[in-house]
Amino acid sequence: MIKKAHEAYNSQDFKTAFKLYTQLANEGNADAMTSLGYMHQNAQGCEKNDAKTLELYEKAAELKQPYALYNLAILCMNGLGGVEHNQFKAHELFMEAAIREVPPAMYEVALMLERGLGCLQNYSEAAFWYEEGAKRGHLQSFNNLGVLYKEGHGVEKNEARCFICFKKAADGSLAEGLYNLGLLYDQGIGCEQNHDTALDLCRKAAYNGHAKAKEIIKGLQEEGKIVF
User: Is the dihedral of CA 190, 103, 136, 209 positive or negative?
Assistant: First the structure.
């Protein structure tokens, strides 16, 4: 029945999905609790209900449902949905989700470790979790791992690996990855210097919403150096 519920949800038949998830959640299905909590959170097939969202996420998290742990961590991290802002609790929950193979949780754990949010700052641990996220195709993990390789934080400085990481992020059209790869081409770091490629990547980053790239392109246009 959970498969039927997921199929209904994915086809945007929220009424059917809500009914099926409710039945399964009442029977103690943690996956259904998580999905139902998400529907309450986003007013899909029902009215938005923060209290019900929290109740369902907490019940599913007690059963160690990976995405319930992740979603609950997001609420704690940002103080959303009536949940008290608590970075330490968020880090704990992200870590539990990361151990259970949730790629965005791996990224969030790494980011918190890199910045010392809700935990002791630890660049080598951050690099480990970024790499775990990257192995599973998480674009932001690739980008941030590239930054660590560029700066030599938590890992040995490695321009070739930095280039590979930024290239992976850029190939996935991540604005930050496009911009960072452009900088490498502009400076000839980990690759042969190529200003045309750098400019093209900067354009793409700007188009994808990267603020710094937008400023650079706007400045070049105003100086009459490029036509965009």
Answer: negative
Token pair 């968020």 is found at: 90
- B/e letters for 8-40, b = 16+ CB within 10 Å, e = fewer, are bbeeeebeebbebbbebbeeebbbbbbbbbbbb
Report whether 8 contacts 20 (CB < 8 A).
yes
Cα separation, 58 vs 98, whole angstroms:
17
Quick: pLDDT tens for 126-160: 999 999 999 999 999 999 999 999 999 999 999 99
The two structure tokens encoding residue 119:
């935990």
CB-based contact 158:149 (threshold 8 Å): yes
Pairwise CA distance, residues 165 & 51, whole Å: 40
Question: How open is the CA angle 119-121-123, to the nearest 5 degrees?
Answer: 130
Contacts of 190 (CB under 8 A, 6+ apart): 159, 160, 162, 163, 184
66-121: pLDDT as tens digits? 999 999 999 999 999 889 999 999 999 999 999 999 999 999 999 999 999 999 99
Contact 68, 34 (CB under 8 A): yes
